[in-house]
Amino acid sequence: MNFHKAPNTYVDQVNLYVQNTERSKDFYSGVLGLRVLKETKKIVTFAANGSDPLITVEQTINVLPQNRRSSGLYHLALRVPTRKDLAAVMAHLLKEEYPLVGGADHAVSEALYLNDPDGNGVEIYCDRPSEKWKWENGRVFMPTNAMDKHLLDELNGESWTGLSKETIMGHLHLQVANLKEAEKFYLNGLGFNLAAAYEPYADFISTGGYHHHLGLNVWNSRGVPVQEGAHIGLNYYRLIFPDRQTRREAIDRLIKLGVFIEQTEGHTFAKDPSGIKLELAV
Fold first, then answer.
1. Distance of CA 211 to CAs 104, 123, 142, 167, Å?
2. 209: burial class by Cβ within 10 Å (0-12, 13-18, 19+)?
3. DSSP 8-state assignment for residue 231
4. Where's the VOC domain (predicted)?
5. What is the enclosing helix (H) or strand (E) of 72?
6. What is the helix (H) or strand (E) element at residue 168, kind and residue range?
7. Residues 185, 189, 192, 197, CA torsion sign
8. Residue 226 has what pLDDT?
9. Are the C-beta atoms of residues 186 and 180 closer than 8 Å to each other?
10. Residue 279 forms beta bridges with which residues?
11. CA 89 – CA 113 distance, rounded (Å)
C-alpha cells in the first residue's frame, strides 16, 4: 500500500530557516544528492525527482540562533524506496566522512540519523514491508534496536549517484510543548490516529495504517513553545489532504478547537498549540 497518497493525509514538504543557503546547498545537494529545483540568492528548493519539492531552505534577515529546547523540528525523515538505497546512503556518508548521529532498527523500518550544517535533524530510512509490521490493540511495535551490521552487504560496488529519485518525505518528527494539547490538535482536529504511544513522552500518529506520518515528543521541549521571531530550524511544513472535503472538515474541527486559520495568497495555514506552523493543502 502507498501510505503517501490519497486517501491518506501526510507531510510532503518542509520549509527551514537556515544561516546560509550556500552551505545548506552544499549539504542537501552536494552531500545527499538532492536536485536543486528552484534557487534564488536567499531561497533554495530541493527535490529528489527533479519536479516535486521536498525541502526548501531560506536565509532571512536577522534570523535567530536555534533553540534546541524550543518546540519545533526534531527531525525530518526522507524515505528511500529500498534497503539497497539505504545501504548506498550509508556507504556514501562513510566515504565522505560525514558524521552520523546514529543508526537504528525500528522493526517497521531501518534508519540513519545525521544533522544538517545548522543542526537540523535528518533521518534517512527505508520501510520494511507493511505486512511484516506487528500491531497489537491498534498500536504498532516500533522499538529502537541496533542497526544490522550487514546492511552494506546489500551493495555490489555501485557508484553513488545521489538519493533515489523515488525518495519522499516519509514523516516529520516534532518537538512539542505539551503532548496532551498536541493530541487534541492532531488527533481530534486534523484527524490523525494514534499508532504508538510512549506516555508521557512521545506519540507517533498516522493515517491509513502507516507506522507514523508525524512524531510528537516532549523529551527536550516540555513547556517551551516556539520562540518569537525567525529561528534557525523549522519555518513550516506542508500537510497534504486527500481532497478538499476532507481538508474542509479538518479546518472546521480546528476552528471548533479555537485554532486560528490564516488564508494567505491562496494558501491555508494554522499553528498547533506549541506554535508550530503548518500549511493545510490538497
1. 15, 15, 8, 17
2. middle
3. B
4. 10-127
5. strand 72-79
6. strand 168-175
7. positive
8. 95
9. no
10. 238, 269
11. 11
Q: With beta carbons less than 8 A apart as the criterion, state whether 64 and 230 touch.
A: yes
Please give the DSSP secondary-structure letter assigned to residue 190. T
CA 215 to chain centre: 8
**Sign of the dihedral defined by the CA atoms of residues 61, 265, 241, 52, in that order:** negative
Superfamily of domain 10-281 in the CATH hierarchy: 2,3-Dihydroxybiphenyl 1,2-Dioxygenase, domain 1 (3.10.180.10)
- CA pair distance 46, 29, nearest whole angstrom: 8
pLDDT at 134: 98
The single residue listed with the C-alpha cell 506549541 is: 274
The C-alpha cell of 172 is what?
516529520
Domain spans in the chain, listed from the N-terminal domain onward: 10-281
pTM > 0.85: yes
CB 217 within 8 A of CB 173: yes
- C-alpha distances (whole Å) from 259 to each of 104, 163, 185, 271 are 36, 38, 9, 7
Q: Could you tell me which residues come within 8 angstroms of residue 124 by beta carbon, excluding any fewer than 6 positions away?
A: 32, 77, 78, 80, 86, 89, 111, 112, 114, 163
Q: Distance between CA 233 and CA 218 in Å, rounded?
A: 17
CA–CA–CA angle 186, 223, 274 (5° rounding): 35
Q: Which three cell numbers stand for residue 233?
A: 530550524
How many angstroms separate the CA atoms of 163 and 150, rounded? 20
Residue type, 208: G
pLDDT along the chain (282 residues), means of 10: 94 97 97 96 96 97 90 98 97 96 97 97 98 96 95 91 97 98 98 96 98 98 93 97 98 98 95 98 98
- How far apart are alpha carbons 103 and 273 in whole angstroms? 31
